[in-house]
Write a structure and sequence with these properties.
Elements lengths: L1 E7 L7 E3 L24 E3 L9 E2 L7 E3 H6 L1 H7 E8 L2 E8 L12 E4 L5 E6 L12 E2 L9 E5 L8 H8 L4 E8 L15 E2 L1
Antiparallel strand pairs: 1-11, 1-12, 2-3, 4-5, 5-7, 6-7, 8-9, 10-11, 12-13
Length: 199
C-alpha cells in the first residue's frame, strides 16, 4: 500500500486564478461541505501559452477536472467528496471538494519541521497508519486540508486505481509524489524534493 500527494503540474500546464484577487472561495474548501452555498467564482488562465491539460489548479492545490477527466474518474471523485461546478469560456469543469478528511497520520513516526515555539508545524516525511486509511482512495488530513490532496494505492482492483485510469485514458496535468510505502519501514521520502511521476 502506498500514499501519494496529488499535485498539479503548474510548470507545464495551464491553471486557473480567481478574476477577483480578493476572492476567498477556494480558500474556504477546508474539508467541510460546501455544496449548498457554492457560488462558482469567475476565473482566468494566468499562463495561456502553457499546455491545456485535463486537470487544473486554482489558488492552492485543488483538483479541478475537465469534462473528460471528471467522467473517467467520477466514481473515485464522488467517493472522496463533493463535485462542484465551475465554468470557463463555455467549458464545464468540476472542482473536487474533498470531504474525506481523516487523521490517519502516524504522528510519532512522521518527521516534522519544528517551529520556533517547539511545535510541529509541517510534515517533512510522512508515515501513515494503514488501519486508519479511509475507504476513499482520495482524501485529506485535518492538517493541510486546504492544500494537500492525498491518494492511497493498493486498496482496490489495480485497473480501477486513479493513477492507472489517468495513464490508460491519457489524462494530463498531474504529478504524483510518493509519500509513504507500507512495505518500507519508517517515513517516506521528503515530499519537498520528490516531484513524482508526471501524468
Amino acid at each position: 500500500m502506498k500514499v501519494y500527494s496529488i499535485r498539479h503540474d503548474v510548470d507545464r500546464f495551464q491553471f486557473f486564478l480567481p478574476a477577483d484577487p480578493e476572492c476567498k472561495t477556494f480558500d474556504q474548501l477546508d474539508g467541510s461541505t460546501k455544496l449548498a452555498s457554492w457560488e462558482p467564482p469567475e476565473v482566468f488562465i494566468l499562463e495561456p501559452k502553457y499546455r491545456a491539460g485535463n486537470f487544473y489548479n486554482a489558488h492552492g492545490n485543488f483538483l479541478i477536472a475537465d469534462e473528460r477527466a471528471a467522467e473517467a474518474l467520477r466514481p473515485l471523485l464522488e467517493k472522496a467528496g463533493e463535485l462542484l461546478p465551475l465554468e470557463y469560456k463555455g467549458r464545464r469543469f468540476t472542482v473536487l471538494n474533498v470531504t474525506a478528511v481523516v487523521d490517519c497520520l502516524d504522528h510519532d513516526k512522521s518527521e516534522w519541521r519544528i517551529g520556533r515555539n517547539g511545535n510541529r508545524v509541517l510534515v517533512n516525511r510522512y508515515a501513515f497508519r494503514a488501519d486508519l486509511l479511509p475507504p476513499s482512495p482520495i482524501f485529506k488530513l485535518p492538517i493541510g486540508a486546504r492544500t494537500t490532496t492525498l491518494l492511497t494505492e493498493g486498496l482496490m482492483d489495480p485497473a480501477q486505481e486513479l493513477r492507472e485510469i489517468v495513464r490508460r485514458e491519457g489524462l494530463k496535468g498531474l504529478r504524483f509524489a510518493e509519500l509513504w510505502d507500507s512495505e518500507v519501514p519508517g517515513p517516506g521520502p521528503s515530499w519537498l524534493f520528490n516531484i513524482g511521476q508526471e501524468a
